[in-house]
Amino acid sequence: MKDLAGKTAFITGGASGVALGQAKVLAEEAGMKVIIADIRQEALDEAMDYFSTRNASVHAIQLDLTDRAAYARAADEAESVFGPVHVLCNTAGVSQFGAIEDATYDDWDWQMDVNVNGVINGCMTFIPRMIKHATGGHVLITASMSAFVALPSTGIYCTTKYAVRGLAESLRVEMPKHNIGVSLLCPGGVNTNIHRAVETRPEKYGETGYYGVDEVVFARLKSVIEGGFDPVDLGRIAREAIENNQFWVLPYPEFAEGQKQRDQEVIDAMMMYQHHPDTIRRAKIREEMGQTMPGASKAS
């Protein structure tokens, strides 16, 4: 989507971290009107204190992404303040790590509700509105390199990020006919406070097999990410992806060699069966019907 100036963006989790970096770039550098939505009012207030000293059009909405009725009201408010939303940044996310066998259902439900259902709710709320206003749009989904790499203790988080990667790839296939672009941003380390996400965990997800508010654990987690991207620099990469309708946004080339190895492992597993009788039978049917295999897509 070119010419972002004057258009409206809705950014979830927009009061801090990666999402606040996106808000700063889109509002201050791209000239967009920006809605920042976040569950934490104090964080929204702090963000708005920042934007009040800048030449930026920003409006804050307190929002629990898991509340679909509240999401619809937030969309109505966004449109009443700034007009139709053209860019949806599904960026809010939470994390908590530990062995799968130690997890509770509440541990699963919290991350699934925010990281997966929150993204679904954003798409279900705004995509029909984008289609209706018929002036184009763009959906940015922030996943993680954990959508490609499974590591010990990341099982729940990794599951959520693989899920939204699948959603993004599906949208990539279906949205072009509506003039809606799609980007999948997969950060590795980013110097944010996501390591303190459990501080925002609602009481309804109260039973955990993992850590709670623990400064020793927080310090260890922070040491992993503090050398990562500055959120504003990552926000600039996200802006370029939106402007260029770039689907894969993977600014971490240090992961490439491992990805090549995993891709080759998958391909080798497929090719083990290239001479199986049923493989030959299916190939003959496709040839007779003039069919090609689905799944190939243009690189971007």
From TrEMBL:
<dbReference type="InterPro" id="IPR036291">
    <property type="entry name" value="NAD(P)-bd_dom_sf"/>
</dbReference>
<protein>
    <submittedName>
        <fullName>SDR family NAD(P)-dependent oxidoreductase</fullName>
    </submittedName>
</protein>
<keyword id="KW-0521">NADP</keyword>
<dbReference type="InterPro" id="IPR020904">
    <property type="entry name" value="Sc_DH/Rdtase_CS"/>
</dbReference>
<dbReference type="GO" id="GO:0016491">
    <property type="term" value="F:oxidoreductase activity"/>
</dbReference>
<keyword id="KW-0560">Oxidoreductase</keyword>
<comment type="similarity">
    <text>Belongs to the short-chain dehydrogenases/reductases (SDR) family.</text>
</comment>
<dbReference type="Pfam" id="PF00106">
    <property type="entry name" value="adh_short"/>
</dbReference>
<dbReference type="InterPro" id="IPR002347">
    <property type="entry name" value="SDR_fam"/>
</dbReference>
